[in-house]
Design a protein that fits this description.
Rossmann fold; 26 helices; binds iron/sulfur cluster
């Protein structure tokens, strides 16, 4: 998105590329797949409407008003429109740039700005700070306060946002970064050597998922190298309009992983994978073509990697259960990966995959959207869980920590029976102990 032939009323720094906006020919093929359009029936909340808003600002016909900024944040950045668009318009990405513009034109109040800066520029770039930030939540769970709050219905007295924040919190274990060995040797006949990109959300909130990822890679015959100096991938920064910090983090990760002698860089987080695959764009002009190509050629989602390498089936035990699969937006739309997770699921002996309707429809998490737009997020979640319920599957499988949090919360809220599992947690059940 660097083709800034004209920035019009956009601030020149981090403006969406003019050519990318011009590509929209207003055909409307994207309308049927846009969740915010489906909910509002409002043109400006559709991909076509958002592209038109961006074009009006770029053409100097519209100031970057608060309404434009609000629309940028009301977009889920689910990228479903990119999959549907015959012209290759990436409205979600255009809206990410508009979120950066919002910081220029309508910066937050001083306290909100300080909090935002602390989270994006201090906390997220520091794995140790991130780990420490969850200490109060772990204490809240360890001393049994969470049990009291939930089982005595105290959480029903909380206002909406607080109730959701409390409700969405899973049981927290020890952060995996502190425990995972730097190198886990391959088991059996060695097939290669991979780097594991330890995502902050996954390894902090769902350490068992990342533990299973490393275990599966080793069981499948790969040495697993996990660099502990890894930084946040930058996805939260792109989503919140802080592209400069995203660039700084990307540069560190690029150097770190390019310095390793590995065949692939594997992630188990769809959001991280999507951001890592965008480093070529994010770091344009800040890294050489050779550096960017070397990095990009190696990044793989775990399902993509396993399906591509071929799953070694010997030794896998049957897991007799039916599952349905929710496709994370950042996997199916952001990376175009619909088949590999299904291939992994189907490779597990005994597992029956029952497809749900609208499996690639956003669950309503979408980063901070689930906390800012409580009602809209809830309506999306209820639609999703209605489709899950209809499958009558034993478990709900997904591949992204944000989706996992939202779906697990919804399952508890609506009293569904299905546990929520990551693809690798399901596969981990088939591995010999
Ligand atoms: S974004 Fe793409 S699909 Fe939507 S109206 Fe524009 S060209 Fe058509
Ligand atoms: S990214 Fe998703 S919410 Fe945003 S315009 Fe596209 S389809 Fe709609």
């Amino acid at each position: 998105m660097s083709e800034n032939l004209s920035t019009g009323h956009f601030h020149p720094e981090d403006a969406p590329g003019y050519e990318s906006i011009l590509q929209c020919m207003r055909c409307g093929f994207c309308l049927a797949v846009c969740p915010t359009y489906a909910l509002t029936n409002r043109e400006r909340s559709s991909p076509r409407g958002r592209a038109a808003l961006a074009r009006a600002v770029a053409d100097g016909k519209l100031e970057f008003t608060k309404a434009v900024g609000e629309e940028a944040f009301f977009c889920l950045d689910c990228k479903a429109c990119s999959t549907a668009c015959p012209s290759g318009v990436r409205v979600g990405t255009i809206m990410e740039f508009c979120r950066s513009q919002e910081q220029h034109f309508h910066p937050p109040s001083l306290p909100a700005g300080l909090l935002r800066d602390f989270i994006l520029k201090r906390m997220l770039p520091s794995p140790a700070l991130m780990e420490n930030s969850l200490l109060p939540a772990r204490l809240y769970q360890r001393i049994g306060l969470q049990w009291v709050v939930r089982n005595l219905g105290v959480n029903r007295l909380f206002p909406g946002l607080l109730a959701k924040m409390e409700g969405i919190l899973p049981t927290l274990g020890t952060p995996l970064r502190l425990e995972i060995p730097e190198v886990i040797p391959a088991q059996g006949a060695k097939r290669g050597r991979v780097a594991f990109f330890l995502g902050c959300a996954m390894s902090l909130v769902f350490p068992e998922v990342s533990r299973q990822t490393a275990r599966i890679l080793a069981q499948q015959g790969f040495d697993v190298v996990t660099p502990k100096e890894v930084k946040c991938c930058g996805a939260p920064h792109l989503a919140e309009g802080d592209r400069e910090t995203a660039r700084q983090l990307a540069r560190i990760n690029l150097d770190l992983f390019n310095g390793l002698d590995v065949d692939a860089i594997v992630t188990d987080c769809a959001g991280c994978g999507c951001a890592l695959k965008e480093y070529e764009e994010i770091l344009e002009g800040r890294a050489t073509h050779a550096e960017l190509t070397r990095f990009r050629s190696k990044v793989r989602d775990i399902s993509e990697f396993l399906a591509g390498a071929g799953i070694r089936a010997e030794g896998l035990r049957p897991v007799p259960m039916s599952v349905t699969y929710h496709e994370p937006c950042h996997l199916v739309h952001g990376q175009g990966l619909a088949k590999p997770p299904r291939e992994v699921i189907r490779s597990i002996p005994g597992v029956e995959l029952r497809e749900m309707k609208e499996s690639n429809w956003c669950c309503g998490m979408a980063g901070s959207f689930a906390l800012k737009e409580l009602e809209t997020s809830r309506r999306l979640l209820e639609r999703k869980l209605g489709n899950v319920r209809a499958t009558e599957a034993d478990a709900l499988v997904t591949a992204n920590p944000g989706c996992h949090l939202q779906l697990a919360w919804g399952v508890r809220e609506l009293g569904l029976k299905q546990p929520v599992l990551h693809v690798v947690e399901l596969m981990g059940r088939a591995l010999p102990s």
